[in-house]
Amino acid sequence: MLRRAKRHAGRFGRLTLFDSISEEWVCRCVELPDAIGAGATAREAEKALTENLTVWFAYLEEQGEPWPEPASAPRSEQVNVRLTAQERAEFEAAAKRMGLSSVADLIRLGVLDLIRAQRDRDRRRTG
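The structure assignment produced for this chain is given below.
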């Protein structure tokens, strides 16, 4: 399971930057903004992110949860969402700040986070 999880982790986009405040390298997963790794070198930060994602994917599998797909995964389904011009501008700005390539990625990640949070709350109530 860990080997498959590590291979899956390698499919996600990464952004590695030096953080002058913490004085260390930080690697962020583009599709999963809360997933990060840090280290003394860029390579260490990238390795830490891969390890963090691998453990998280293994945990999801143990819980019977599906793994998230990277942005490069084929997407065949479409949902139309109507927004005001102001909402669209805010969504586009937020997606850009988060390093996402589109408003669709922002909406998809945000809604999936809400679904998972609700599922966790439901589990705690019933478990």
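Interim note for the steering committee: Residues 103-126 form the longest helix (24 residues). The two ends are 25 Å apart (CA to CA).
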